[in-house]
Design a protein that fits this description.
heterodimer; A: 3 domains; two-stranded antiparallel ribbon; 5 helices; disordered C terminus; B: alpha/beta; Nucleotidyltransferase, domain 5; 6-stranded mixed sheet; globular
Chain lengths: 195, 161
């Protein structure tokens, strides 16, 4: 099976029979790995990989045992976690990021989005804008004492203006726009006006 | 939001660590792991979509989970896994799915209990735990040929070496 013995438990897959094996490309183990002398005896000298029969259960485990790891990886791309002294803040950020990535998966699965793949960065940026819009004083009860004439609305995206974080000639230490193409298109996050 | 999505047939149960280097009685320290200190959550996910999660804690031997009386023989992590799976199984009672776990959670009573409620599972396991079939045990330094396979079936759970 592997260069070192692997033990598994299953209630799905059969131990023996016609359908218990599947052909997969397997790689030659390193000469110093555990049980290398036994495992590498099936390979010809100088051969690095070979199609070998492995149990269906091992193949399924290799394919499907990555669900949590994918979520971990996507969560690290745009990390929201800030340094804080409260011990419950990391839990909140973790749940927030999980909810954001879950909603991205659902958004990608929508029938209307089958053709295009939604960029993770664009999704996070638009969700930030939507959250700011949702939390505007017109929809929040705690700001109901403010007259309606003073409600804050987002102006049209000023595409001709540079982003305040990426002024021309002065690159920020941590650019908020990943590509130079977006520098002129970036919507200033503080470009809100009071009517 | 979970009403807009139906679980696929293959879900994973694994641990996720949240980095936290401050002080709390619930942190877990694992100095040799990428996240060396923090909170540990047990997650049930499918291709990146986190379905369920449950915090685990070192204080008081794990976070207590309400289990029925016939499940008291499971370990603490086993109770957590059973709780996660049963929770999503109650939400989608008509669905059955395959659960893939790693060797932290796997015990034979857990697999037998989950098989009883209609969940199939597949997991790597350790030779050291107490219900491992004695006839499959091998020493640490045994030399085996590449295609050596053996197996045993106990109480509906197949163990493969």
């Amino acid at each position: 099976m592997d260069s070192s013995p692997v033990t598994m438990m299953s209630t799905i897959y059969p131990l023996s029979g016609e359908n218990s094996l599947v052909l997969r490309m397997r790689k030659h183990s390193g000469n110093k790995s555990t049980n290398a002398s036994g495992a590498n005896s099936t390979f010809l000298p100088g051969e690095h990989q070979q199609g070998l029969d492995i149990p269906v259960s091992v193949d399924a485990h290799n394919q499907h045992k990555v669900g949590v790891d994918i979520a971990d990886q996507y969560r690290t791309y745009f990390d929201t976690q800030l340094i804080s002294r409260n011990n419950w803040y990391p839990l909140f950020y973790w749940i927030l990021e999980s909810a954001l990535f879950n909603s991205l998966i659902i958004y990608r699965d929508l029938p209307a989005n089958n053709e295009c793949t939604v960029n993770h960065f664009d999704f996070r940026l638009s969700s930030v804008n939507d959250l700011l819009q949702t939390g505007s004083p017109s929809t929040m009860k705690c700001f109901s004492h403010i007259p309606a004439s003073q409600t804050i609305t987002r102006s049209a995206p000023p595409y001709n203006l540079p982003c305040p974080h990426c002024l021309p000639g002065k690159l920020p230490s941590r650019p908020c726009c990943p590509s130079t193409k977006r520098y002129q298109e970036c919507i200033p996050h503080f470009g809100w006006r009071v009517e | 939001m979970q009403q807009y999505r139906v679980p696929g047939s293959n879900v994973t149960i694994d641990e996720a660590m949240i980095l936290f280097t401050g002080r709390s009685i619930h942190i877990t320290k694992m100095p040799n792991k990428p996240i060396r200190q923090g909170y540990k959550f047990v997650c049930m996910a499918e291709k990146g979509y986190v379905w369920e999660f449950h915090p685990s804690s070192n204080a008081g031997g794990g976070d207590p989970v309400d289990v029925e009386s016939h499940l008291l023989h499971l370990t603490d992590t086993g109770k957590m896994v059973h709780h996660l799976i049963r929770h999503s199984h109650q939400r989608h009672p008509k669905l059955s799915f395959n659960v893939y776990m790693d060797n932290v959670f796997t015990t034979k009573p857990l697999l037998a209990e989950l098989h009883w409620i209609g969940i199939e599972e597949y997991a790597t396991c350790r030779q050291q735990f107490q219900e491992f079939p004695k006839e499959l045990k091998i020493g640490n330094n045994a030399k085996l040929p590449y295609h050596f396979r053996s197996g045993a079936v106990h109480a509906g759970v197949a163990t493969l070496l």
